[in-house]
């Protein structure tokens, strides 16, 4: 392992990723100091393992002190233009992130790098399961689950990493074996400032990549790289020699590759065209690694999705009930709604509402109108969603919203909880909201 010789390395930001960086450096004998601008940050376990390490918090952290370090590992939650970094940058103190530490520790380890505005967690999890089924020793993490540096202890021969724009914006080229930007729509503009800056941050994932997987229908997902880069595409339309696609109608609708059918859509455990795109993106990674697709197809028959992300949780009066409580913004809920509507013969009853975080819901309203969804708004901003769409009804609670949908929902229909809002007006988290929805569905199913 190559480690720099320095007076000390400062780890700035002591969230989950920052503490993983600190543990990694300290375990390899690198002199480290710790800092977090929050006055109350829980580092008791870290300091118990490494007593005597200098740790400053709150007002003790200032730009002049930060600039005294010989290297600063900056956590993803700290923006590149944060005033704390100005003096360090002017003194040309190296500012690095956890990806840089990862590559320094394991320069030759295969990395599958996955980003995008929506679907990252589902595709990352799918790829991990598929590669394991193909015989690779895989560890999965990054922005999902475990911090990437902790994965180095697993003895894996391949890391599958979900990466956020925050993690990517400061990363040096890290040469992933396969990289993908699943899709691009406006997000985190409060951090990046504008869409071009968000695009640039996401596309740093392709730096030094050996192969890429590209969403054929999203031009912003396509890397601006040389023609010699190995590229696998996916599309919800026709396949090609280098493109996964969807062909056929009804029960004969299937995923194709190289003009041949691989698996029928109704054999997938996940539902909705948005999850069909996720499935093909994951297959694209397997293909880019030159692995056998057969084990990966078996995974698709078993994997029903991540909790609270478009998972079928029951059936009432013949209508499927889908928990997408993780849909906490318009983009995620639009993908869930349109994907489900295009995959079902019947109607979609959309349950939406909560803390809208200042959104105007105009984009969601257009999607509701386009697919002719039946809308039930609930919670604090439920009425605002109904007003934006110009249709639907508003109730107070999630239970009332489900019951309102079930009055008319029938065989072939779907009741979709995809709130397009945070949960904090009525729930502790999106997890609690999704768990209540699943409990309500189970109770209604028993009572029918």
UniProtKB/TrEMBL annotation:
UniProt keyword annotation of ATP-binding present: yes
Domain Mur ligase central as annotated: residue spans: 114-285
Domain of life: Bacteria
Residues covered by the Mur ligase C-terminal domain: 311-421
Major enzyme class: ligase
Cross-referenced Gene3D superfamilies: Mur ligase, C-terminal domain (3.90.190.20), Mur-like, catalytic domain (3.40.1190.10), NAD(P)-binding Rossmann-like Domain (3.40.50.720)
Subcellular location: Cytoplasm
Gene Ontology molecular functions: ATP binding; tetrahydrofolylpolyglutamate synthase activity; UDP-N-acetylmuramoylalanine-D-glutamate ligase activity
Recorded GO CC terms: cytoplasm
EC number from the UniProt entry: 6.3.2.9
InterPro entries: Folylpolyglutamate_synth_CS, Mur-like_cat_sf, Mur_ligase_C, Mur_ligase_C_dom_sf, Mur_ligase_cen, MurD
Residues that bind ATP: 116-122
Keywords carried by this UniProt record: ATP-binding, Cell cycle, Cell division, Cell shape, Cell wall biogenesis/degradation, Cytoplasm, Ligase, Nucleotide-binding, Peptidoglycan synthesis
Family membership noted in the UniProt record: Belongs to the MurCDEF family.
UniProt-recorded name of the protein: UDP-N-acetylmuramoylalanine--D-glutamate ligase
Organism field: Litorivicinus lipolyticus
Highest classification ranks of the organism: Bacteria, Pseudomonadati, Pseudomonadota, Gammaproteobacteria, Oceanospirillales
